[in-house]
Each structure stands twice: as structure tokens, then as C-alpha cells.
Amino acid sequence: MEILDFLFYTFTVVVVIQVIFYLIIFTKFAFLKLEKKKKKDIPVSVIICAKNEAENLQNYLPSIISQDYEHFEIVLINDASSDNTLEVMERFSKQNKNIKIVDVENTEAFWGNKKYALTLGIKASKYDYLLFTDADCKPLSKHWIKEMSAHFIKTQTIVLGYGSYSKIKNSFLNKIIRFETLLTAIQYFSFAKLGLPYMGVGRNLAYTKKAFFDANGFVNHIKLRSGDDDLFINQIATKNNTSICVSPESFTESKPKPTFKSWIKQKRRHISTAKYYKLKHKVLLGLFYFSNLLFWILAISLFITTYNWPFVIILFLFRLIIQYVIIASSSKKLNENDLIVWTPFLEIFLIIIQLTIFINNLISKPNFWK
Fold first, then answer.
1. Least packed by Cβ within 10 Å: which of 133, 205, 206, 302?
2. φ and ψ at 4, to 5 degrees?
3. How far is Cα 9 from Cα 307, in angstroms, rounded to an integer?
4. Phi-psi region of 217 (alpha: psi -120 to 50; beta: other; left: phi over 0)
5. How would you label 92-103 residue by residue, b for 16+ Cβ within 10 Å and e otherwise?
6. What is the 3-state secondary structure (H, E, C) of the chain?
7. For range 95-110, the mean pLDDT
8. What is the pLDDT of residues 57-89, one digit of tens each?
9. What is the pLDDT, as a whole number, of residue 109?
């Protein structure tokens, strides 16, 4: 009985921690009132780093070229591709004067390092305002550049955007990928509004060239193959220099990974950078994940034993309802409404996957970007 008492009180504490996260932190984004920013006519360099992305460039680059924005260039970085990526870039360049190509060859010191390629692209760009996306991404409107650039002001030199994944009917993997993306967005948008920005996604991210060079670029983590987006933002973002852009016209959409194996490989790379975050971010994110894990383990254990079951049910439903309200409100902002009803099931599955990835990363280090 003493063990069950301990489990029950621990469960109570875990529920309190979860509720604090949802009501104090995640409400910052869930109940955020979207304000229309005054559009700015500032020159923007759109930067796309591509490695073996010939087909994706062919399909998605037109959506960048056709943006309704007066002053912008497109910097295409060919990161030592082995397919015909460069030829596709050159074909588009001949048809569009605002395209600049940076052809990067592998060097012994920076073999396969995306950050090296990105640095060369940033140096080659002619404008101070930089907007980043991936070769397999497309803006969901012709006003993507206009919406993202509107959030630049003198003091705010970083703009965090939302990069969604396309929907595939009757695909459980697709729901998992999009749910994980949704939860990550809720977290980094909420922390940014709280004054604790800690990451952005390279699929939809903007900052100034001055901010990049003032921070000495990626030099602090240049040897790590990943982290050109989240680690760099974790390094330079503050409550004063960071803005978020979540208008639907500012979203980008990417192709999701087609198999669990390829998605797990991608997530291993992403999760491996988290240990390099600032301590305060690691503590908060770790506490949230660990309390999430304990919530389901303890809830299931107490339900099986039927110990103090009326109070366990009350605590369980209390946390679930609060979570549902926050995620539902956030999902509407990010156009992910179809995921709401699946939240408990997707959350349990995602917790298991994240724990598995964490253990695998302890055993072997993912050290690749392509």
C-alpha cells in the first residue's frame, strides 16, 4: 500500500507540473491574438540549400519565384550534389535574373557539412534580410515573403515561422509526423512569447545577415552536422530580438518522410542537437517530456490497480481536458484541426518513439544531414 500511496502522490505532482506547463506556458501561443503587421518593402534574400534535390527544386522552386514581393533574390546553394541539382538550378537561373547560384564543393575540413554550405550562401547574398527554407518546401501563399518580412523591426532581427507537412489520407505515419511538428511548434512559439526563445525550423526561418555575422555564424557548433537552425537560434535568440509569424499566408509545406525508418533517422538527427541547448532550455524541455512520460506510466499503473480510482480519474481527465483545449486552439491557428481528436493516441506513440530515439542516440551518434 505504501508503494501505491507513493505512486498516487507522484502522479498528483506530475499532473500539477503538466497543468503548469499548459496553463502558464502553452497558453501564450494557444490564446495569442494574431495582429496584422504593417507590410514592409525591404529587400530580402531567400536562401535554399540543396543536396541531391533536383526533383524537389523542379517541383517547388516555382512557388518561390512567383512570390508577390518586389525586392527579393533567391540564393540557391548546391551542396556538392551527386545528381543533376546544379543543372536544374542553372536552368531556372537562365529564366530568372533574381536567382544566384552558389556551387559548393566538398572540402576535407567540411565534408558534407550543411553549415559550411549555408555560410557560403549567406556571404554571397546581397541583402541584409535573410529568409530560409528547404528545397522540398513550398510557401502556401504568394505572400510568404511579405508576411515573414513584416515582422522585422529595428530590435527584432529573428522571425520564427511555421513549417507544416502535407497531409496524406489514411496514413498513421503522416499523422504522427504532423502531430510531432504541431507539438514542437506549440512549444517554440510559446517559449518565444514567454521571452525564452530556444529554436526555429529551417523550413521557415528568417534573420538578418548582421545577426549572423555578429554571432560569428555557426562557428560555435560548426563541427556538428545538424543544428543550423535550432542551435543557431538557441545561441542568439533573446526575448527582445525574436518575433513569431503565424499568419496562414506565412506557412510553408514540406513533403513528409515516406517511411518510419527515414523519419526516425531524421528525428535522431534533430533530437541529437537538444543536448547543446542552453541549460535553462534543457531543464524546461526535459521536465516537460519526463513529466509527460510519467503521466502515462503512472496513470496506466494506477488504473490497473484501481487504487484511489475516483481521484485518479479526476486528475487524469483534468489534465487531458486542459491539454485538449490548448492543442485544439493551437491547431486551429496552424491549420492542423484533423489531429485534435487523435491527441491521446498520437501522444502515447510519440512518447515511446522519442524515448527509443533518445536511447539509440546514447548508443550511437547520428552524424549526417543527407
1. 302
2. -65, -35
3. 12
4. left
5. beeeeeebbbbb
6. CHHHHHHHHHHHHHHHHHHHHHHHHHHHHHCCCCCCCCCCCCCEEEEEEECCCHHHHHHHHHHHHCCCCCCEEEEEEEECCCCCHHHHHHHHHHHCCCEEEEEECCCCCCCCCHHHHHHHHHHHCCCCEEEEEECCEEECCCCHHHHHHCCCCCCCCEEECCEEECCCCCCHHHHHHHHHHHHHHHHHHHHHHHCCCCCCCCCCEEEEHHHHHHCCCCHHHCCCCCCCCHHHHHHHCCCCCEEECCCHHHCEEECCCCCHHHHHHHHHHHHHCHHHCCHHHHHHHHHHHHHHHHHHHHHHHHHHHCCCHHHHHHHHHHHHHHHHHHHHHHHHHCCCHHHHHHHHHHHHHHHHHHHHHHHHHHHCCCCCCC
7. 82
8. 999 999 999 999 999 999 999 999 999 999 999
9. 46
Tell the burial category of 154 from Cβ atoms under 10 Å away from its Cβ (0-12, 13-18, 19+): exposed
Residue 362, judged by CB atoms within 10 A of its CB (0-12, 13-18, 19+), counts as exposed
| Digit-coded pLDDT (tens) for 236-277 | 999 999 999 999 999 999 999 899 999 998 888 778 788 899
- Picking from 144, 177, 146, 135, the residue whose alpha carbon sits closest to that of residue 162 is 144
pLDDT in tens, 11-37: 999 999 999 999 999 999 999 998 888
* pTM score, whole prediction: 0.93
Phi, psi of 156 (to 5 degrees): -100, 105
Please identify which residue in the block is written with the cell numbers 549572423. Answer: 212
Q: Is residue 56 over pLDDT 90?
A: yes
Q: Which of 83-97, 218-232, 321-335 has the lowest mean pLDDT?
A: 218-232
Rounded to an integer, what distance in angstroms lies between the CA atom of residue 284 and that of residue 187? 11
Residue 21 to residue 319: CA distance in whole angstroms? 11
- Over range 325-334, report the average pLDDT: 97
